[in-house]
Amino acid sequence: MKTIVSAAALVAASLFAIPASAANLVLYTSQPNEDAQATVDGFMAANPDIKVDWVRDGTPKIMAKLQAEIQAGNPVADILLIADVVTLERLKEDGKLLAYKSPEAAQYDAALYDADGYYYSTKLITTGIMYNTSAAMKPASWKDLTKPEAKGLVTMPSPLASGAALIHAQTLAAVPGLGWDFYKSLAENGAIAAGGNGAVLKSVASGEKAYGMVVDYLPIREKAKGAPVEFVFPSEGVSAVTEPVGILASTKNADAAKKFVDYLLSEKGQEGFLKLGYIPARNGMKLPEGFPARDTIKVLPIKAAEALKNTDQDLKTFSGIYGSN
Amino acid sequence: MHGYIKTGNSQPAWLFPFVVIIVLILSVLPLARLAMVGMAAFADGGVMTVLSETSLWSATYYTIVTALLGTIISLVIGCLFAFLLTLTDIRAKGLLSFFFVLPMMIPPQVTALAWVQMSGPSSPLLKALHLAPPLGSPQPLYSVGGIALLYGVQHAPLVYLALRAGLMTLPRDGVEAARLSGASSLRVFRDIILPLSLPGIIAGAAISFVSCTGNFGIPAILGIPASIFTLPTLIFTKFSAFTSRTFGDVGVLSAIIAIISVVGLVIQDRALRGRDYRVIGLSGASAAFELGAWRLVFTPLVWAILFFMLAAPFFALVAGALVPAYGVPLTFKTMSLHAFEEILFRQAVTRTAFINSLSLAGATALGLLVVTVLAAYTLTRRKDALSRIVSSLIEIPYSLPGIVMAVCFILVFAAPIPILHVSLYGTIWIILIAYFSSFFAVSLKPVVSAFHQLDPALEEAARLSGAGFFRRLADIILPLIAPAAGASVILVFLIACNELTISALLWSAGTQTLGVAIYNLDDSGSSDLASALSVLVVLMVVVLMLLLEFLAKRLPKGVIPWRG
């Protein structure tokens, strides 16, 4: 009997040892793990009484998780920090977001946040071309990727796995002279689209492919660590996402969530992003090392409302060209 | 067997119903829920929409083709090792057996990562050796052949174990009689050993095939980058593009995997039926063949296979964890422990993952043990049809792919539980319940075999002297089955710690497991961190296996898989 009781006690103890999430805030983000950890560490250092748990995945997967949780009646996240405003605009329209007017917004260009306070851009992430330094050609334009020298050597993230990749495709598709035809000729040149930006970085840095479309900070950071890669801002311009932050209407801790938004937009929070190698969204901030002067970076325009409306059709068009699921 | 004592009254009346209720919750309820969703989809025509998608058929095709090829590879390697290590006088059998079973215990996504690090232009190991293929060379493992090869490596131990069990009972006198009549070794092998080991080979092939169809880690890492989807990875990507139809769609997809698995098992059953090789005489055919000069061929061969299966991928994994960035060749100058530092001391996620996996595995192993001891007691005492049904119901969740069980539990627990109004979906508890269901059979097996070896007279004597059920359990039964219980706990712990397929669908914020953490790190492009975490997991597996090895002397035969 004693053994049974002690065995039962042991089981009970190990069951209670399972940590029920003790966090005050749960953040869903598409930043890479190390960056997500650094962001949360910075916030918790500034707000020691608030504990933040975070989940990282590509924007579409994070959204899928959230949708599944909402459908099951149990949304876990309090805050979203994900690739693009289009996704947050959709949530806003569905009434899933909480409006909050952050005092920090005064320091931001009005185009970088929602006028009603549903979401705020935190940084500028552009998508350009990276290449392996042992590649024969140094690409300068998007069209260089369709040249015979790049045949079978180009890779790009799939819009099905990455929010930035979706915006990128929608941006280039609207540029005269590029458009979906550009994507078609890329596919005819043997380009592939699979996985997220991390996969592109891996593939090009390792030499499986020579050229890749990818978000700026990954190759610039890896180059500094010694990886054999270069990043170029193509002559036609780059697409950009702004990684906005938004609070979910279902949050149980709105005050802590508002503090989190304020922190990200504050000078300190923005410096954190700068240190990680991102272009901060706040006015008057410096650029991270390895970037050219800001006025030399030509950002291609995108109409968010139109992009939102066309998202499903654009995904279908893209899948049709690249035959991905 | 039980002498003159009626067996029925030696156990309390509540015991069997208690076990039945547990089995209803862990096996019947989730599978019935899946069946309901499948039928509902049939009724409203949703099945037709799913069945008309080409992605479904290509995934089914890839699932079957990779599983068949993988099974063939695992048969070749598994049979070679089983014959050599059981029937010949090859040296260091214990060591070889230990190493050969190791890949089975290593999480499949770790195996896949290690092999990716070992081959292709990205390999830090090949770069360090100046053997890396040129720029633009495709990674050869991102293909049907690559997936099948790793299936073969991962599941060869299953074939080995299934065949070995049969070979151990081969009649030695049959072999000796043939020898005395002048038959050559080859002749003995062809005419006596091969026919008698056929059931073991078929069983091994079936287990391997079913495990291949349910594998998630390998096709996730090798298949997704090449747009090759198997059914488990298709289910996973369906969840990654969640729509209102998702729950129904994945229900139908899971049903298809379940059908393929069941077909595999039924074919095995048919193949074995009617083959009654009842053998007489002495068994234990150890060292029936002397290798002689062949030793010079086979010894290097088996060690070379083990080198490519284990050592080379492991060193590649270590190399991948030590390089500072992608594409940097590994030298003493570039080597850095940054990745280990980052995952051990900086990343909250890996810490959470370690805590989650260890406590989930601990709670599953210990919690199941309590249920298992009671279930094994009543199932070995009762010999009626009902207890046989209960036994097979316990087996079903284990023989079905993990992703199917995960979907079952999502369907059961997606909505808040009625009456209680508690939502388990998105919490760690849903993972725990799914683990209980999936690993019940693993936990039960060693304990049942210990009960079979138990002399009922001891307990009956105690009962006649007036000892109650719990008294007998504590003073007689538990001490006698303690070693098997220990083995059961370690085995379940080992498997649950390394699990990915179930938790890949069920995890949420703060409930990441080690398997999910490794997959996610690799997916976000941090393959140095993923490699570092994998290295730690492999080391943990080896330590746990050594722990079982130390327990070995006190265990009933057959409890530790890699020992004879």
Which descriptors would you attach to this protein?
A: 325 residues, alpha/beta, seven-stranded mixed beta sheet, six-stranded mixed beta sheet, 13 strands, 41% helix, B: mainly alpha, 23 helices, globular, Iron ABC transporter permease (chain B), MetI-like (chain B)
Helices and strands, with pairings:
The complex is a heterodimer of chains A (325) and B (564).
Chain A: H1 2-17, E1 25-29, H2 33-46, E2 52-56, H3 59-71, E3 79-81, H4 85-93, E4 97-98, E5 119-121, E6 123-132, E7 154-156, H5 163-173, H6 179-188, E8 192-193, H7 197-206, E9 211-215, H8 217-224, E10 229-232, E11 239-241, E12 244-248, H9 254-265, H10 267-276, E13 279-280, H11 304-322
Parallel strand pairs in A: 1-2, 1-3, 7-8, 7-9
Antiparallel strand pairs in A: 3-12, 4-12, 5-12, 6-9, 6-10, 6-11, 6-13
Chain B: H1 15-43, H2 46-51, H3 54-87, H4 93-105, H5 108-118, H6 124-128, H7 144-167, H8 172-180, H9 185-214, H10 217-222, H11 231-239, H12 246-272, H13 295-322, H14 338-346, H15 348-381, H16 385-399, H17 402-413, H18 428-453, H19 456-464, H20 469-497, H21 501-506, H22 514-523, H23 527-551
Helix pairs in contact in B: 1-12, 1-15, 1-16, 1-17, 3-7, 3-9, 4-7, 4-13, 5-13, 7-9, 8-9, 9-12, 11-12, 12-17, 13-23, 14-15, 14-23, 15-18, 15-20, 15-22, 16-18, 17-18, 18-20, 19-20, 20-23, 22-23
Quick take:
The complex is a heterodimer of chains A (325) and B (564). With 325 residues, chain A is of the alpha/beta class.
Structure, described:
The complex is a heterodimer of chains A (about 325) and B (about 575). Chain A is α/β, with parallel strands linked by helices and about 325 residues long. Helix content of chain A is about 40%, strand content about 15%. Chain A has helices spanning about 1-15, 35-45, 60-70, 85-95, 165-175, 180-190, 195-205, 215-225, 255-265, 265-275, 305-320, and strands spanning about 25-30, 50-55, 80, 95-100, 120, 125-130, 155, 190-195, 210-215, 230, 240, 245-250, 280. The relative contact order of chain A is 0.17. By secondary structure, chain B is an all-alpha fold. Chain B is built from 23 helices and no strands. Chain B has helices spanning about 15-45, 45-50, 55-85, 95-105, 110-120, 125-130, 145-165, 170-180, 185-215, 215-220, 230-240, 245-270, 295-320, 340-345, 350-380, 385-400, 400-415, 430-455, 455-465, 470-495, 500-505, 515-525, 525-550. The longest helix of chain B is centred in the first third of the chain and has 34 residues, at about 55-85. At the A-B interface, α1, α2, β2, α3 and α7 of A face α11, α15, α18, α20 and α22 of B. Chain A: Keywords: Signal. Chain A: This is ABC transporter substrate-binding protein. Chain A: InterPro entries: Ferric-bd. Chain A: Pfam families: SBP_bac_6 (PF13343).
